[in-house]
Design brief:
alpha+beta, Topoisomerase II, domain 5, 4 domains, four-stranded mixed β-sheet, 44 strands, 29% helix, elongated, topoisomerase
């Protein structure tokens, strides 16, 4: 069938296909009488005897050319096959387009079949249905009403039940067809005239693409974005020698009606250069967490031509055959034109791994093979590149605009000629009336002789009623004549200069872009699948990494935290398990390296984007699903790697006050199963880690409001397996709540208590002491404030702070709203706490440019 998807991309020599004589001249037309060779033609007694080989070759070639030209291949000028062209022409001729009401499809099919396309009603109807299906056509040419099928392969209703009319973009392909812009030819029985090609104001062959199978060849052209095609065409008009790479700055790649992601790279460029190549199309998917902690893979955009039901059946088949594990269900939740396919995963499933398996084994990832074969000048099949296709379209539009201008010029001159005659009649109205009344048989000759009128002018005057002739208004005639003379001058100027014709083409294209242009649906990724790193596909964005005490992690865009004034209650920031609280907040760029330290003194490393992104209300992903940790091991500290450079250090502190400094270069090669960062005493845990330069001061603080400051030079650098030294001596019932680095003596500390009170205080209020002391007061701890939960040094560029509560409330407050107070004060209310809730952790937000430092 002529609309079948291309399966055979073999090329055939166009010269060989366009000339029957070349085939026939190889065989002798006749041989000596009596030679009954199978491949020869002979004439005996006036009767021609034809060899089977010659006869089959001749008639198969005729059949092939008939299929190629009259059925299967599109014309490069209007991008239509003959059946499509005949459907649109019939609808235009009968006025079946907006604002006309839709008409029965059976009526359209009958008219097309009876007048132009005698190849069966079902082929015409299915061709018409294709033009109306929005999942096949990037810009539908026909507007259907009723059941026109579905993207899952459901058949449309019979043509007696459906209705249709021409869509707006379809009408643009026939604009000005009545102005002698294209050639017409006889239909199949010589009773009607049909257009050889449509005027086509848009490059429809690229706009909507085409698929078709001819004899020995096939075409497969993807759809594209209207705005991009217009921009590229205008650029080629301005510079006919434009390079392909310049054109591809406008035409990014195919734009499929179903969206999805298109992976291009070198094969796509080759396709636009030579007409043959390929791209990989991937579905757009998201990984969503369910309330029970399990995950769903959700598909929201599918590859061009993929059936949702077919995909679901394939998934079920793979599960039954044991080729896919950990899939509980697959279902289609699409509604109201929006695609949503849900693949439900079982417990302990790795969503990314299963998604990759789905890409490999199902239609979620497919290849589209370009074979941009089209008829040039209506007869010659050729494989064309992007620049050649646009060039052919521009040449076609030049002919159309020239013929239209000539038509309009002719009409304008004819009207001006008549008006000039009416003006002469008006100047001599009494005599003209007298001549008409006195001359019945030869009034036209008398007018021509007496006033020097042409036959056309005289007949125009005679065809008017006398009362109209007497009532002619000189001003109206002169004004219309003036406008016509201006129009004639404009049209003649266009015809006199090819650049003017090109200017008209550009203006009309830009107007159509403004009228019908829309946003790209398919995302173009200029890499081949498998030849780029995952990191290159991850957008850079400022994020917040959240870690709970039960080791659930997630990544949330910074913009999801709404800024509020201090004293607000915040918004829901994380769903946590019972007795689980937010342990740490870290702001980072999605491409930063993160170091994860565990309570057992081990270190892991991965990129921030590898922490699964989730919504504010989501619980997050268990760390054991991302890192090779022991069953009882928990992450206690996360830092960004890189700010201190290769000569920096990692400074660590434990919950019992032990500290340790190690060279950061010792931690460059982190294995997937982690590295030992510190050796711990029994019962102790690694809690805090910071990068230092080797010259920094260290501040350690406790829940009872004590803090000590000392220089890190007091601690020598130790190997990874060393235990460390005492950093601070604790009083009874007191515990360490924070360790931070002082990079500038003018810095401030932010101190936050459990009940939402906080303040900033100058680091200079804490003179350096020897390590191992009990420290001095950092804040007044009262029943109203509750114990201190966090003490952090503030970067001078810090603008905001994010606070999280044990019940998952979050607030983002500007630093300027937090007052700077003395050491012994309790601070002001920063976050209003609900009953039974308390502050769990805080994170400091830096300006975006500061967070963009390379890791």
């Amino acid at each position: 069938m002529e609309d079948d998807k291309s399966k055979n991309n073999q090329n055939v020599d166009p010269e060989e296909l366009s000339s029957e004589d070349r085939k026939l001249e190889r065989a002798p037309s006749s041989v000596s009488e009596g030679d009954d060779s199978e491949g020869s033609n002979t004439i005996v007694d006036g009767i021609e005897r034809r060899g089977v080989e010659n006869t089959m070759e001749e008639y198969f070639l005729k059949y092939s050319m008939s299929v190629i030209i009259d059925r299967a291949l599109p014309d490069v000028r209007d991008g239509l096959k003959p059946v499509n062209r005949r459907i649109l022409y019939t609808m235009n001729k009968n006025g079946w387009k907006a604002p006309h009401a839709t008409v029965k499809s059976a009526r359209i099919v009958g008219d097309v079949m009876g007048k132009y396309h005698p190849h069966g009603d079902s082929s015409i109807y299915m061709a018409m249905v294709n033009l109306a299906q929005p999942w096949k056509m990037r810009y539908t040419l026909i507007e259907g009403q009723g059941n026109f099928g579905s993207m899952d392969g459901d058949e449309p209703a019979a043509y007696r039940y459906t209705e249709a009319r021409m869509d707006k973009v379809g009408a643009e392909l026939l604009t000005d067809i009545e102005k002698d812009t294209v050639d017409f030819r006889d239909n199949f029985d010589g009773t009607e005239q049909e257009p050889v090609v449509l005027p086509a104001a848009l490059p429809n062959i690229l706009l909507n693409g085409q698929m078709g199978i001819a004899v020995g060849m096939a075409t497969n052209i993807p759809p594209h974005n209207l705005g991009e095609l217009v921009d590229a065409t205008v650029a080629q008009i301005d510079n006919p020698e434009i390079a392909l790479d310049e054109l591809m700055k406008y035409v990014k790649g195919p734009d499929f009606p179903t969206g999805a992601e298109v992976y291009g790279g070198a094969p796509m460029r080759q396709a636009y250069a030579t007409g043959k190549g390929s791209v990989v199309i991937r579905a757009v998917t998201n990984i969503e967490e369910r309330k029970n902690g399990r995950y769903n893979i959700v598909v929201t955009e599918v590859p061009y031509g993929m059936s949702k039901e077919g995909f679901i059946e394939k998934v079920r088949e793979l599960v039954l055959s044991k080729k896919l594990d950990h899939i509980a269900d697959a279902r289609d939740e699409s509604a109201r034109g929006k695609i949503r396919i849900v693949v439900e995963l079982k417990k302990d499933a790795f969503p990314k791994k299963i998604l990759n398996q789905l890409y490999k084994m199902t239609g979620l990832q497919t290849a589209f093979h370009y074979n941009m074969l089209a008829l040039v000048d209506g007869v010659q099949p050729r494989i064309l590149g992007l620049k050649e296709i646009l060039g052919e379209f521009i040449k076609h539009r030049q002919k159309v605009v020239r013929r239209r201008t000539e038509f309009e010029l002719k009409k304008a001159k004819e009207r001006a000629h008549i008006l000039e005659g009416l003006k002469i009649a008006l100047d001599n109205i009494d005599e003209v009336i007298k001549v008409i009344r006195s001359s019945y048989d030869d009034a036209d000759k008398q007018l021509m002789s007496k006033f020097g009128l042409s036959e056309i002018q005289a007949n125009a005057i005679l065809q008017m009623q006398l009362r109209r002739l007497q009532g002619l208004e000189r001003d109206k005639i002169e004004e219309e004549l003036k406008q016509l003379h201006e129009l004639i001058a404009t049209l003649e100027a266009i015809l006199a200069d090819e650049n003017e014709i090109l200017r008209v083409i550009k203006e009309e294209l830009i107007a159509l872009k403004d009228k019908y242009g829309d946003k790209r649906r398919s995302k173009i990724i200029n890499h081949e699948v498998g030849k780029f790193s995952e990191e290159e596909l991850i957008p850079e964005e400022e994020s917040v990494i959240l870690l709970t005490s039960e080791n659930y992690m997630k990544r949330v865009p910074q913009t999801d935290f709404r800024k509020q004034n201090r004293g607000g209650k915040g918004k829901r920031g994380m769903t946590t398990k019972e007795e689980d609280v937010i342990a740490q907040i870290l702001t980072a760029n999605s491409h930063d390296f993160l170091l994860f330290f565990t309570n057992q003194g081990r270190l892991f490393r991965m990129k921030a984007y590898e922490v699964p992104q989730a919504s504010l209300a989501a619980k997050g992903t268990a760390a054991v699903n991302m890192l090779n940790m022991h069953p009882e091991e928990k992450i206690t500290a996360i830092i960004k790697q890189g700010d201190a450079g290769a000569n920096g250090y990692l400074f660590m502190a434990t919950k019992k006050g032990t500290i340790k400094k190690s060279a950061i270069k010792d931690f460059f090669n982190v294995r997937s199963n982690g590295l030992i960062a510190i050796k711990l005493d029994e019962g102790d845990e690694l809690k805090w880690v910071q990068e230092t330069t080797g010259e920094n001061d260290i501040v350690i603080s406790t829940s009872a409001g004590q803090a000590t400051r000392f220089n890190e030079k007091e601690v020598r650098a130790m190997g990874r397996a060393a235990m460390g030294v005492r950093g601070m001596r604790l009083r009874p019932k007191d515990e360490i709540v924070g360790m931070d680095v002082v990079t500038d003596p003018k810095q401030k500390l932010i101190v936050v208590s459990a009940n939402g009170y906080g303040k900033a205080t100058l680091v200079s209020n804490f003179p350096p002491h020897k390590r191992g002391g009990v420290g001095i007061k950092v804040a007044a701890v009262t029943e109203k404030t509750g114990p201190i939960v966090a003490v952090h040094t503030l970067d001078p560029l810090a603008k905001e702070v994010i606070m999280m509560s044990t019940k998952g409330q979050a607030i983002r407050v500007a630093m300027k709203e937090i007052p700077t107070l003395g050491r012994a004060t309790q601070g002001v209310r920063i976050m209003k706490m609900s009953e039974g809730d308390s502050v769990a952790s805080i994170g400091i937000v830096l300006p975006e440019e500061e967070q963009d430092k390379p890791a």
